[in-house]
Write a structure and sequence with these properties.
7-stranded mixed beta sheet; alpha/beta; binds zinc ion; binds fe (iii) ion; 281 residues; TIM Barrel; binds adenosine monophosphate; 15% strand
């Protein structure tokens, strides 16, 4: 039986509701699932409730986009208290920054002769929190591009004509924010923007002093070589190991929850996470 500690719902850029996600986990015999939407914990209450009905252990989580030496990293937070005043204010600021950026992107698209309204964006964003993937979906629906990747490559990624930056907190301050809200802080998919892990030792040295608890080891794109290196670095810093599918629903073809043909994440990892939290509290 696998667990899955990294998933997205329609409270960010996933396509399933938290309840549907938990039902899928139950169907796939995943014993524990963490909901880790981008920059929001708004879907976690629904997920936890669904979990208790369906017999799936649900861990309330989040994935926060941060900036570190001007490069984007993602920090996962587990069991942070979303009502903690500092965390809640930070998440509100991130929502505001997303809204501002969306307007800039829409203006740029307008300038390119592709008028998309904020109302349309709101509809596709479902539960609220909007990201570039939602804009990409509209561009696919309109037939402007064929795939979401193409939307990023031609318009939305850094350097392209409709790109707009947005505010992000620093990595270290985000780690301490999660810790102060009573959560565990984990560096997500460390190889995503650093495929040979050349920057990682320095990143870890910094983030461990800020209170980083773990790194994501099991991840669909991680090679055996990457995993070996991650295990070694985690050992050096006494870091927890986590893992998940980064499932976004059917919007990304070929992805699925952990287990089955996807990665296997051992349930013992979750026990170790809980143990660390118990010792701390
Ligand atoms: P945002 O958080 O709004 O800046 O959007 C970033 C998100 O877009 C990432 O977390 C990914 O989920 C998604 N993304 C980034 N690049 C691509 C791509 N080339 N194709 C599809 N999705 C992407
Ligand atoms: Zn996403
Ligand atoms: Fe991520
Ligand atoms: Fe993710």
């Amino acid at each position: 039986m696998s667990i899955d500690l990294h998933t997205h719902s329609n409270f960010s850029d996933g396509t399933m509701s938290p309840t549907e996600l938990v039902a899928l986990a139950s169907y796939k015999k995943i014993s524990a699932l963490a909901l880790t939407d981008h920059d929001t914990m708004a879907g976690t209450e629904e997920a936890v409730l669904a979990g208790s009905r369906m017999g799936v252990e649900v861990v309330p989580g989040i994935e926060i986009s941060v900036s570190y030496t001007q490069i984007e990293y993602h920090i996962l937070g587990y069991w942070a208290d979303s009502t903690n005043s500092v965390l809640a204010a930070a998440l509100a600021r991130l929502q505001g920054a997303r809204a501002e950026r969306n307007e800039k992107i829409l203006q740029k698209l307008h300038g390119l002769g592709i008028p998309v309204t904020s109302e349309e964006l709101q509809v596709v964003s479902e539960q609220g929190q909007t990201g570039r993937p939602h804009i990409a979906r509209i561009l696919v629906e309109r037939g402007v591009v064929k795939t979401m990747s193409q939307a990023f490559d031609q318009f939305l990624k850094k350097g392209e004509a409709a790109y707009a930056s947005r505010f992000a907190y620093g990595a270290a301050e985000t780690v301490s924010m999660i810790r102060q809200a009573g959560g565990l802080a984990v560096l997500a998919h460390p190889a995503q923007n650093d495929p040979d892990l050349v920057r990682l030792p320095a990143v870890l040295a910094d983030l461990v002093s800020a209170g980083l608890d773990g790194i994501e080891l099991y991840y669909p794109s991680h090679s055996n070589k990457v995993k070996k290196r991650l295990r070694a670095l985690a050992g050096q810093h006494d870091l927890l190991l986590t893992g998940g599918s980064d499932y976004h629903g059917e919007v990304r073809p070929g992805t699925s929850l952990a287990g089955g043909k996807n990665i296997f994440v051992p349930p013992e990892l979750l026990e170790k996470m809980k143990e660390r939290l118990r010792l701390r509290r």
